[in-house]
Amino acid sequence: MTTVKMSAYLVVMLVAARCFPAVAQDLSGNDPHWMKAEGQDCWVRNPSPKDHQSITWSGGCKNRLANGHGAVDFTNPDEGIEIITTGNMIDGSFRGRVTQDIISPGNVHVYRETDFANGLPNGYGYYRAERNGIKTLEYTGQFVDGRMSGQGHGIYYNPATGQPERDFNGIWAEGKPSVANTIPSTSGSSAGGSSSSIPVQAQAPTSTPTPQSQSASQDDAQRQADIQEAKSYWWTAASDHITGSQYMPAFKQMRDDPNATGWMAKWEISSYFERKYAFSKDVSPENLLAAYQRKLYWDQELLTLITQNPSVAPSFASVSRTKYDIAQDKSNISKYQTQIQEAQEKAAADKREQAQQAAEDAAFRKKLPSLLAERKDIGDKVCLLNGYVGYVENVHGNKIEVKTREGVTRGGVMLNQWENKDWIDYNKTYKCE
After folding, report:
1. Rounded to a whole number, what is the distance in angstroms from the first to the last CA of the chain?
2. How far, CA to CA in Å, does 1 sit from each of 75, 129, 132?
3. pLDDT tens readout for residues 236-279
C-alpha cells in the first residue's frame, strides 16, 4: 500500500470513527447504524456499519442508550482495525471533548483529542499519527466538521528516522495546509524536498516557528494581539497605588511605541510573557508552552534588531544576553512539550487499560450464567457473587452449604479469624480457581 493510499485509508477510518448527532433510534437490531454493546442491552450509534463489527461500552445506560462518561471499544477483525473512543455520551452519541486511539494495519497508531459539536470534531484539537512507533505527523489547531481547517500548526516527520521534514504553520483547509511556511529540519530537509510521511491530522509541535516563518497577515495579527496584551498588563501593574511607579516606564514605552519597532518595546513584551504565569501556583504545561513560544518570537525579533545595531540597546538587552535568553526559551519549550506528550501518552495508556478492563468485565458478564449453572460438588472451591471465596460442604436440592473464612486484619496482620457456613442458592456461586 503506498503512502498516499495509506493516508487516504486513515482519513476514511477517522471519518468512520466520528459520532453523529442524535437521530431516530431503531433498537430492534434491524438498523445496522445502531449497535448493541456486548454483554448489555445498551446501544451506540455506528455511522459506518459493516459485517462482523463489535463494540463494548464501559459507561452507563439510560433508556437502552449509552449515556455518561465512558469508552467505546470498536473492533473490525475483517479490516484489522480497533478504535477506542472516550468521552461523554448522550443518547448513544459522543458530545464535548473526545479522545480516540486508532490502531490500523501496518502498525499504524493514531491519537486524536478534539472538541465535538454537532457530532463532529469542531473547534480546537490535537492529532498525532505514528507508524512502527515513529511519529509521522503532528497537528495542533482548529478542526471543522472532522477535518483540519482554520489556524493550525502541523509538522510532517520522516517515517524512517522520525526527523521533522516539513513544517506548516498557518491556515489549513480540508485537511491540508493552504499556506506553507517551511522550517528546515535538523537533517537539512525542507518543505520543497520529498517526504513519505503519512499526511494525517495532530499537540504542541516539536519545533518552534520563527518570526520569519509566518505569513505577513498572520504575523501582524498575532503581533498586534501580543502588543495589546502586554500593554494591558503593564498598565494594570502601573496602576497599583503602592508598586505602580516602578512599572510606569514600561507602560509608557508600550504606549509611545504602538507597533513595537524599538528594542525596549520588544524587550518589555518578552518580559511580559516571561512574567505571565510567574506568580501562579497552578499553571498547565500547555499555557507555559504557549507563553514561551511567544517569548521566543519577541526575543528573536529583538536579536534581529540589535544584531544590526548593537549600540542601540543596553547590556541587559545585548546580543549575547538575548542569545542566552533564546536558548533558555527553546529549553523551556522542549521541556513543556515533553511534559505534554508524556501526559498524553499516559492518559492514552490509562484509557486503553480502562477499555480493556471494561471488555474483560463484559466478557465475564456474558459467560457468568453458564458458570453459575455448572455442577458443584462437595469439596469444590467456589466464588460467591459478593466476592467471598469458600468451599462446598454439602449439596441438597437447589441449595449448597458453603464454608467461608473471614477475619480482621490490621497492618497486613490477621488479628482474628473465623469460619462461616451458609446455605445459599445453587446458582448463586460458580467454581473458581
Report:
1. 47
2. 22, 17, 15
3. 777 765 666 677 777 777 788 888 888 888 888 998 888 887 76
Three-class SS string for 114-164? EEEECCEEEEEEEEEEEECCEEEEEEEEEEECCEEEEEEEEEEECCCCCCE
Gap between the Cα atoms of 110 and 12, Å rounded: 13
Amino acid at 394: N
What residues pair up with 429 in beta bridges, in sequence order? 384
Helix (H, G, I), strand (E, B) or coil at 218: helix
pLDDT at 346 over 60: yes
Instruction: Pick the range with the lowest mean pLDDT from 55-59, 72-76, 93-97, 178-182.
Output: 178-182
Question: pTM of the full predicted structure?
Answer: 0.41
Other residues' Cβ atoms within 10 Å of the Cβ of residue 35: 22
Strand 176-177 relative to strand 389-396, pairing:
unpaired
Query: Is 61 within 8 Å of 41 (Cβ atoms)?
Result: yes
**Exposure letters 278-297 (e unless 16+ CB within 10 A, then b):** eeeeeeebbebbbbbbbbbb
120 contacts 112 by C-beta, under 8 angstroms: no
Inform me whether the pLDDT recorded for 338 exceeds 90.
yes
Tens-digit pLDDT profile for residues 202-229: 333 334 444 454 455 667 788 888 988 8
pLDDT tens, position by position, 362-388: 988 888 888 888 888 888 998 888 778
**130 C-beta neighbours (distance < 10 Å), count:** 20
Distance CA 405, CA 388 (A): 9
Which amino acid is it at 139?
A: Y
As a whole number of angstroms, the distance between CA 192 and CA 167 comes to: 11
CA 183 to each of CA 155, 156, 334: distance values in angstroms, whole numbers, following the listed order:
9, 11, 16
Burial class (CB in 10 A: 0-12, 13-18, 19+), 378: exposed
Burial (CB < 10 A; 0-12, 13-18, 19+), residue 426, is middle
For the cut 80, the answer to whether the pLDDT of residue 358 exceeds it is: yes
Region of 174 please: left (phi>0), alpha (psi -120 to 50) or beta. left
Q: In the chain, what are the helix, strand and coil shares in percent, each to the nearest 5?
A: 35, 35, 30
pLDDT of residue 409 exceeding 80: no
pLDDT in the model for residue 7: 38
